[in-house]
Specification:
By secondary structure, the protein is mainly alpha-helical. The chain is built from ten helices and five strands. Strands 3-4-5 form a three-stranded mixed sheet. A hairpin with a 3-residue loop joins strand 3 (198-199) and strand 4 (203-206).
Amino acid sequence: MKMFFISLLLLPFLYCGKSGQNNKIPDLAYPINTSETIQSADHAKWNILLQKNVSKNGIVDYKGFQKDSKQLQSYLDVLAANVPKKSWSKNAVLAYWINAYNAYTVKLILDNYPVKSIKDINDPWGKKFFTLGSNKYSLEQIEHEILRKMSEPRIHFAINCASFSCPNLLNEAYTEANLEKQLTTVAKNFINDKSKNTIASNKVEISKIFDWFSGDFKKKGTVIDFLNQYSSIKINSNAKISYKEYNWTLND
């Protein structure tokens, strides 16, 4: 009887240990519940579209995307048919969902074009307007329920909300092989972009992104500690922090 009660007491610890094994990637990241081994999605079609319709400084040619709407839909079909599997690496899953967020943001703008701001669209982030695998998704689900739960704060510089104050839309697709390099590049580019952040040793005026998602940037220190990993100017730990007004004008 004594051993029985000891076993009961140990059950919660055994359960927590088991459930924590895959907690870096949320279940919602896998639209179909399977462990089948499958090659990760090919983002080559998206790469071609980005190289053609996005400038190096992030200006998006939505009219060009309109002309290439069939090619965009072809890539979206690739995403829908090749959803992440549990056999994929974390970088492959991240690349998939970053590209999905960006591609469907472009699709959302095209469906409502011409538009001056993404905020002129009714419920742009909360609307479930696309299906991947067996699940319907919204942009905010991808951002908050998948990407932000994967303990990679640099995703905030990779996903683009079609606005001037957002981090620039990278003119190449994110890939499993290049993801680490790409995330470092977009973090450096965004933080050192004077139109997005004004940085001095004793004073910083930074994007509202660092305010809205401050917890994501404080996992291993302060926001200043995070900034100093990528800033070309060393920021003092007691520097005064303020936030820039966000420009939601379309990034075209």
